[in-house]
TrEMBL record:
Catalyses which reaction(s): [GlcNAc-(1->4)-Mur2Ac(oyl-L-Ala-gamma-D-Glu-L-Lys-D-Ala-D-Ala)](n)-di-trans,octa-cis-undecaprenyl diphosphate + beta-D-GlcNAc-(1->4)-Mur2Ac(oyl-L-Ala-gamma-D-Glu-L-Lys-D-Ala-D-Ala)-di-trans,octa-cis-undecaprenyl diphosphate = [GlcNAc-(1->4)-Mur2Ac(oyl-L-Ala-gamma-D-Glu-L-Lys-D-Ala-D-Ala)](n+1)-di-trans,octa-cis-undecaprenyl diphosphate + di-trans,octa-cis-undecaprenyl diphosphate + H(+); Preferential cleavage: (Ac)2-L-Lys-D-Ala-|-D-Ala. Also transpeptidation of peptidyl-alanyl moieties that are N-acyl substituents of D-alanine
Pfam families xref list: Transgly, Transpeptidase
Keyword tags: Carboxypeptidase, Cell shape, Cell wall biogenesis/degradation, Glycosyltransferase, Hydrolase, Multifunctional enzyme, Peptidoglycan synthesis, Protease, Transferase
Location of the Glycosyl transferase family domain: 44-217
A molecular-function term among this protein's GO annotations: peptidoglycan glycosyltransferase activity
Species for this entry: Corynebacterium heidelbergense
Protein name (Swiss-Prot/TrEMBL): Penicillin-binding protein
Domain of life: Bacteria
GO biological process terms, semicolon-separated: cell wall organization; peptidoglycan biosynthetic process; proteolysis; regulation of cell shape
GO cellular component: a single term: outer membrane-bounded periplasmic space
Protein family per UniProt: In the C-terminal section; belongs to the transpeptidase family.
Amino acid sequence: MAVMIIVPIVAFFAAYAVTRVPEPEELVNNQISYILASDNQTELARIVPPEGNRQNVKIEEIPKPVRDAVLAAEDRNFYDNPGFSITGFGRAALGQVFGKSGAGGGSTITQQYVKNALVGDDFSLVRKAKELVISAKMARDWNKDQILQAYLNTIYFGRNAYGIGAASKAYFNKDVKDLTPEEGAILAASIQAPSRLDPWTNRPEAEARWNYVMDGMVTIGAMNQGQRAAAVYPQVQDPALTQQTSVAEGTNGLIKQRVIDELAAAGINEDQVNTGGLKITTTIDPVAQNAAVDQVHQQFASLQQDLLGAVVSVDPKTGGVRAYYGGDDPVGWDHANAGIQTGSTFKIFALAAYLDQGGSIYDTFDSSPIQTGDATVTNVGGESCGRCSAAEALKRSLNTSYIRVEKALQGGPQDVADMAHRLGVATEIPGLGKTLTENGGPPFDGIALGMYPT
């Protein structure tokens, strides 16, 4: 037992003695990443790290409330801790033993800086041990303000902005010295997940994180309750107005964002994409993609100017997306990834649930008006088949028949929701939350008629 304790301690101090802590500017290593179509040749987007974007600022130039916002978001005991978290290391060790890559967390600002600037973030105890050793030595060799300054000049804030100086320009088009506490909290909130927490594209989640940071500022004594109560969520500027280092035209910019989201889900974060020199091959078929975009433009050419549309073509064998169109603005709202009511298309999920429970497409249903809740459901144009098969009612898109199909299900509307999710309808949508639910409870009967955004 004594050996098990002494050996790691000796190893720690031996590594500590020979470890050198480099300066922040020695550590920049930016590379271009490419997003390619399925032919591995057609370029959809190019992610160019912002050489020269990083604008180092001195700690004195950063308003204290802005610094406090970062501490409230990332490390509330920064000025008191030894530079590392033993409990976080313990969780990572257990995660390594049990194969849980999501274990760990609780890293201090010093550890985050060391991870981002020196040791990387691969999932291993060796990497975590290096992080611990360097963090401990850095906490001894540097004072806390030096560490915080290096961290704030290195961390990624989204919008291709590395360092708080660049982030201040990207989000608010102002020098960092002019940031308000509320604006500082926006930047601090973005550190956790820069693209997902951009207020321009996902205000609900971004504002929830901002509230967490602002409340944290009260907790650490950086703001009083009166200031907190008076705080107003600030506006950020349109990302399109900032310098774009992601080369992507039209809807390819939206494809790029979906790729980044999928990579993040696979454990490859946005910072790695921006600096890793990656070649990312997608399932997008360049022929199908061009055809989809051309078709949208042709169809919309003679229609009203404010009409919105989206196209997603999915390979039914693999689930891979072959073509994707969410709009022509590469940094605008993605209508292909937005929650929109589907209407009568959703009747197929009611039928699928009915068939799954042993029903038949030849079973017949009445098509007369039907009462559900406070509403009387009818068919468009007074259409009716009297009493006809589920298949015929689907062909005619009869609302009344499919309310009755739904009522024949063992679980009613919930069975329709469950079948839709089983067949691939998203369970959550950014900015919308959980889908196919009525305020967190079972859906209403109208789910069979496509009343819920998906």
